[in-house]
Amino acid sequence: MPDQNEWTEVISPKTSLLDLKLAELWKYRDLIIIFARRDIIASYKQTILGPLWFFIQPIITSLLFTVVFGNIAGISTEGINSFLFFLASQICWSYFSSSLNGNANIFVSNAGIFGKVYFPRLAAPIATTLSNFFRLIIQLALFLAIYLYFYFIKKDVSIQPNWQLILVPYLLLLMTFLGLGLGIIVSSLTTKYRDFSNLMGFGVTLLMYASAVIYPVSFLPEKYQYYIRFNPIAAVMESFRYAFFGQGSYNISDLVYTTIFAMVVFFGGLIVFNRIEKNFMDTV
Amino acid sequence: MAETVIKVENVSKLYKLGYVGSGTFRDDVKYYFDKLRGKKSEAELIAETNDREHKGTSEYVWALKDINFEVKRGEIWGVIGKNGAGKSTLLKILSKITSPTEGSVKYKGRIASLLEVGTGFHGELTGRENIYLNGAVLGMTKSEIKSKFDEIVDFAGVERYVDTPVKRYSSGMTVRLGFAVAAHLEPEILIVDEVLAVGDAEFQKKAIGKMQDISAGGGRTVLFVSHNMASVRKICNKGLLMRNGKVAMIDEVERVVDNYLSSEAKQVFKQEWELKNAPGNDFVKVKKVEVCATNNSALENFDVKTPLEISIEFYNNYAASDKVYTSLHLYSQEGLCLFDIGSEIKSMKNGIVKSTLHIPANFLNDGSYFINFNILDADGPKLLFSLNECLAFDITDARHDDLSYFAKWGGVIRPTFLSFTTEQVIGNAAN
To answer: In what order do the strands lie in the sheet with B324-332?
Structure first.
């Protein structure tokens, strides 16, 4: 008789908190790619402008910000062209916020599919993040084109690219960890307590106002400048703009703090998610 | 001896009834605190068996309790039971959608579960894109799907629409495409919910054929959950009967299905009364009502091929005793009256009278039926007494073995003795 102890898989109520089944996730990498593709493709199916919407959204938003916050409210952008300032902020922020929003709904919006078939649940938030990352890359290319136009053609002297540009990929990685980590924490809690989906409805907008997206940190009164340091997103926003424009109160200790924060959120999120995913169908 | 590929040991699943609300958080804290101290939580101690027909007092229920079984390679199991018996919960645990509260499930080999056809289909995407999406959801890699792509399209019969968004497909086409993808999975263990009850006759034939191929070739193991006893009998070789969240019986499929049909159905074949408490009035009193198979009164499972006899015996005390007759109403379970038929009027004396109705074989369709009797005076006619829902019986399906159509047969009745002829009106010139 063959060895009965060699089970391919054992399902039991208890698993280790840290058992993230990464090998299994790797086997499902095709699924992750296909999910991400689905999100991207489905967003512009049956539209006339198609993928152009990836460009239209940040440009219109930035123009609106320029008019409302720059011209009407008169928020100073530290001498930087206000359209460029808002475009940079907006692209960086919307990567975080759409990643957060997408992942915060991951259990509820996928309940139908999660309830019918098993695959490593982590595939879904990773795919959502990936599709947002793809959008970010496209929008970043747009930003770079406009940025270079201002720098070389219009010779805008307020733009001072500097060595910090090499930190940009790292800043985006921090945003990824923050968006994914916070998102899956919220989504895990939402499976049982829908209170969190109410919170998310306005919370993300409020967070934008508290994260130095539509103003530079220097615009704030002194005492608020102290408090905003505790917001890890603000540090990323400020550093991101500093890299391109050479303006802003960029500070290495803020980045260290943000890094620690992002790691805690990310790994905490993975653990919570892993814990919830096994039984969420019973409560969702 | 074949190797065990699925081993289910002491699996139990606890559910909380009622709302998840503001009280939940407090309960959760208590639950984890109990768990931390290593004792059984209060919830587990007070939980009751899963029996939806009796209202319990506890808000915790064991949807499954102490399930144990072993499935050997190449076996095809039919999992049957009433709604709410725990079949779906068991299926969800076996397919890793939710985890057991206690116990464990062990597998050997690659497992795939098919609880729904076309899981994850996205309406905006084309047939082609959805084949990849659905395939990947079910656990196939991109290259596997690519190598089977043409076969899948061919099996589903959607070549023409493969680049059309699935939202423009008819529901039948969507189902065919979904099943086609699933049918090309090649797992060692396949868990199938009642997905065959969809699609047209031609597609059903294909689907059943594919299911049989899967098990015949390569010794794959299948767990099939269904309410359709005809397909369970045809496809499976072992049966698992669930009742109130527990395993009630594991045996050869025929025995399990028979046991299920006779135990779960609420049939009344016969009622008999003493004169003193017989239903009736001064005119008539009913002595006995009965339904049985012609020539075999012991048979308890009627199928569509069983000829039936339905009879009523009553004490006829009516003054105009020669005018008394009975009418019989046969109702389907949904309350539709199939027919209302009067017995012959014969000059009977006072005393015990018996009327018998013969229903030929191959007349009623499969389903559940009940009977009302009216006893009347032919002058008028005037109702003397009626006895409602006094008999109830089920008729199960029986089909030719070579017929691969498994959906519910249409119609209220199935009178196969009707003649439906075919003749050549104009032939081909060559003949």
So the answer is: B302-303, B382-396, B367-377, B324-332, B337-342
| Cα torsion angle, A178, A181, A187, A192, sign | negative
In chain B, ranges of CATH 2.70.50.60 domains: 270-396
How many CB atoms neighbour CB A244 within 10 A? Answer: 23
Main-chain dihedrals φ then ψ at residue B376, nearest 5 degrees = -130, 160
Contact A42 B122 (CB under 8 A): yes
Structure tokens that stand for A100 in this block: 């957060």
CB B370 within 8 A of CB B392: yes
Task: Encode chain A (284 residues) as per-residue pLDDT tens digits.
Answer: 445 567 888 888 766 666 777 888 898 999 999 999 998 988 888 788 888 888 999 999 999 999 999 889 888 888 888 899 999 999 999 999 999 999 998 888 888 888 888 898 899 999 999 999 999 999 999 999 999 999 998 888 888 888 889 999 999 999 999 999 999 999 988 887 878 888 888 999 999 999 989 898 888 888 888 888 889 999 999 999 999 998 877 778 888 999 999 999 999 999 988 888 877 777 66
Does B125 sit within 8 Å of A45, measured CB to CB? yes
CATH of B270-396, one of 1.10.10.10, 2.20.28.20, 3.40.50.970, 2.70.50.60: 2.70.50.60
Residues of A in contact with B194 (CB under 8 A): none
**Nearest-CB residue to B106 (from A7, A116, A279):** A7
**Which residues 6+ apart lie within 8 Å of B178 measured at CB?**
B116, B117, B118, B119, B121, B134
Element (DSSP H or E) covering residue B385: strand B382-396
The distance in angstroms from the start CA to the end CA of chain A is 43
* Residue B37 Rama label (left phi>0; alpha psi -120 to 50; beta): alpha
Three-state secondary structure of A196-232: HHHHHHHHHHHHHHCCCCCCCHHHCCHHHHHHHHHCH
Chain A nearest CA to B104, separation (Å): 4
DSSP letter at A163 equals: G
Interface check B31 vs A, CB under 8 A: no
Q: Right CATH number for B4-9+65-263 from 3.40.50.300, 2.60.120.330, 3.40.50.1970, 2.60.120.200?
A: 3.40.50.300
Which residue ranges make up each domain of chain A? 50-283
Boundaries of CATH 3.40.50.300 in chain B? 4-9+65-263
* Distance of alpha carbon B117 from alpha carbon B77, whole angstroms: 20
Q: Are strands B367-377 and B324-332 parallel, antiparallel or unpaired?
A: antiparallel
Distance CA B268, CA B317 (A): 27
The answer, as to whether pTM is greater than 0.90, is: no
Q: Which residues of A touch B96 (CB under 8 A)?
A: 11, 118
Q: How far apart are the first and last CA of chain B?
A: 58
The complex scores an ipTM of 0.83
Cα angle B42, B68, B8 (rounded to 5 degrees) comes to 95
Residues B62 and B77: their CA atoms lie apart, in Å, by: 23
